[in-house]
Specification:
The protein is mostly beta strands. The protein has one domain (6-128): Jelly Rolls (Sandwich). The chain starts with 5 loop residues before the first helix and ends in an 8-residue tail after the last strand. 10% of the residues lie in helices and 49% in strands. A hairpin with a 5-residue loop joins β3 (59-79) and β4 (85-97). Strands 1, 2, 3, 4, 5 and 6 form a six-stranded antiparallel sheet that branches.
């Protein structure tokens, strides 16, 4: 059993600061056989999360502390002069998540392109269905 108190959160932030990616996640699954994805993610300003989508699951994001923006995009596949396909993103909306302001979290539907902008050190709870499958 873990208590998510100030000491625990401070340790997550310390681990995030030490990480080259400026973020650190804490796995909340019960075992490696648990096929859900549940984690706490400590995020520092300057971390870069590429624009991405989850093809087969929605994503639930709840901001426990700090301040982030969830940025939602429309995406269009464009064929270049060399016949290579590229995706172009157009920002659609921004959603400020900050418990001090009363905006706690959101559900991002499956297939929606998104990223985050970390405004101040933050810890978020993330949940998705299914086992983690790295992007190709």
């Amino acid at each position: 059993m873990n208590l998510f108190d100030k000491e625990f959160i401070d340790k997550l932030f310390a681990d995030a600061v030490e990480s080259p990616r400026l973020r650190h996640n804490y796995d909340l699954r019960n075992s490696a056989d648990d096929t859900s994805q549940r984690m706490l993610n400590a995020l520092m300003p300057g971390t870069e999360v590429p624009i991405h989508q989850h093809i087969s699951t929605a994503e639930t994001v709840v901001c426990l502390c700090g301040k982030i923006e969830e940025i939602i995009y429309d995406a269009e596949t464009v064929v270049g002069d060399n016949c290579a396909e590229n995706i172009q993103y157009k920002e659609k909306s921004r959603h400020l998540l900050c418990p001090k302001l009363g905006t706690y979290g959101m559900q991002i539907p499956k297939g929606v392109w998104h990223t985050i902008n970390v405004i101040e050190p933050s810890v978020i709870f993330e949940a998705k269905d299914g086992a983690y499958i790295p992007s190709k």
